[in-house]
């Protein structure tokens, strides 16, 4: 599978392990992977920690693994904090999507007795209604909205670039991937990160071209890069930029 990676510091792979939240340690998430053969830990620039584990790993093993590497995690977090001061969490009142050159106002409408948060959008406004005092539910609703906007905006661009590069795809998925900007599966499915909408149009276009070119080269060989260069001469700079583009993703999204 071809991928465009986002930034993170990763602990080298160790021996076996686990599967649920690591107890009382905050800012952690655990992701099961069918491809993982060993435990690994990733620390992201804003301090989020992800533990990748093989399937059916026990929770007790996850905790033990995290505790064994707590010093490494602490140092990685401290290094990122020194380079990138922590940003407070604030629900947005406006959302600027540079990649599609659109801006939206966000309105919150609390409803007594509501247990969920839903959304509706009209022109340049996104309205969240329901249990809007719950920040987590609001973020979940906003992510659903981002996914819907991305599906609508990405598909015509991807089809146009597919014709330009003469590389087809079978399906397009939109997700909020934590470790990549996009991917192209061996079955012809291109997955694109809705966070690309927070970057500029050139980076969004580049990621689409990159993934479409994997239809011909499912690797990152010299042939692949030459092929990408036929359609995006500035691919080297754009690809390098993606390593630090997480800075453009708002804190409330909670991915990086």
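Q: What amino acid sequence fits the structure above?
A:
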């Amino acid at each position: 599978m071809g991928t465009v990676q986002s930034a993170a510091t990763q602990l080298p792979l160790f021996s076996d392990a686990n599967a649920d939240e690591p107890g009382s340690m905050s800012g952690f998430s655990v992701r099961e992977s069918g491809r993982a053969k060993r435990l690994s830990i990733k620390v992201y620039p804003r301090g989020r920690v992800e533990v990748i584990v093989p399937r059916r790993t026990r929770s007790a093993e996850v905790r033990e693994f995290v505790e064994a590497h707590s010093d490494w995690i602490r140092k990685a977090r401290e290094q990122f904090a020194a380079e990138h001061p922590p940003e407070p969490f604030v629900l947005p009142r406006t959302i600027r999507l540079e990649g599609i050159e659109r801006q939206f106002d966000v309105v919150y409408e609390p409803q007594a007795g509501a247990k969920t948060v839903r959304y509706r959008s009209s022109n340049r406004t996104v309205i969240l209604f329901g249990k809007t005092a719950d920040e987590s539910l609001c973020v979940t609703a906003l992510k659903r909205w981002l996914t819907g906007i991305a599906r609508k905006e990405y598909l015509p661009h991807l089809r146009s670039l597919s014709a330009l590069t003469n590389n087809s795809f079978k399906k397009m998925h939109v997700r909020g991937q934590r470790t990549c900007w996009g991917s192209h599966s061996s079955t012809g499915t291109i997955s694109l990160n809705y966070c690309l909408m927070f970057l500029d149009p050139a980076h969004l276009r580049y990621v689409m071209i990159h993934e479409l070119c994997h239809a011909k080269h499912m690797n990152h060989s010299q042939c692949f890069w030459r092929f990408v260069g036929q359609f995006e001469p500035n691919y080297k700079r754009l690809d390098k930029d993606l390593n630090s583009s997480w800075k453009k993703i708002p804190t409330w999204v909670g991915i990086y």
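Q: And what stands out in the fold?
A: The chain has a mean pLDDT of 86.
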